[in-house]
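Consortium newsletter contribution from the modelling node. Members have asked for a concrete example of what our holo predictions look like. Here is one, prepared for the adenosine-5'-triphosphate complex that several groups have been discussing at recent meetings.
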Amino acid sequence: MTGLARVAGRGLVRTFGAGATAVHALAGVDIEGHASELTVVTGPSGSGKTTLLNLLGGLDRPTAGHVVLDDGRVLSELPEAEVLATRRARIGYVFQSFGLIPVLSAAENVEVPLRLALTDPRERDERVATMLERVGLARHARQRPYELSGGQQQRVGVARALVGRPDILIADEPTGQLDSDTAATIMDLIVHLTHELGIATIVSTHDPLLIERADRVLRLHDGVVDANGGGRTPTD
Ligand SMILES: Nc1ncnc2c1ncn2[C@@H]1O[C@H](COP(=O)(O)OP(=O)(O)OP(=O)(O)O)[C@@H](O)[C@H]1O
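And here is the predicted structure:
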């Protein structure tokens, strides 16, 4: 392990419901996300990938265990307002279904996090333009999601996730709805931006090509790390 993890899950347990019908989505998982590294969480459907990413991204809280940030704070125990402030300042999210607002243009979708953060309008415009350029969509700024291909929509999703300059990126099956060629270009983009911007990226995926490019791979099975693949780097 190199250096302090930017975000780490320690002994994460997440149980939904109680009693006989309780679902043990995660049953004690450790994970680390490091600067400039791609951490991939993989495993069969229902193994707990989304649940784990939601905990790391501060979208849900564990039943037991902790999510710890590199500044020493325990994200999973902060008051809700502080979790929200931390999410806005430090964490970007990419979703399988893109999650774009249909009535807004590509540029307006990318601008949403900056509006929420009350960024100065002129700076907003500059940062949106720079980010659209970075994801190769400068010429599509005014188009609405329905006028864009799936791959282009996910590029907007990536731009929106990164426009606030987060240092942690959480991407839940970001290529799950894309054909394989388009998926490859989105993967390239995510891998490239992870290294270029020094982001700690944590991605869930079934895609063997993305797993191959990971710096760390965590294989989940029924809410626990698979004994044959837990926390190792692909080169171990
Ligand atoms: N809010 C919830 N309430 C009850 N059970 C839930 C909830 N969220 C997830 N689960 C259950 O927890 C388990 C893990 O689900 P999760 O969505 O994390 O798996 P996954 O690996 O992301 O699956 P997929 O690859 O299909 O997206 C599943 O059995 C699921 O049904």
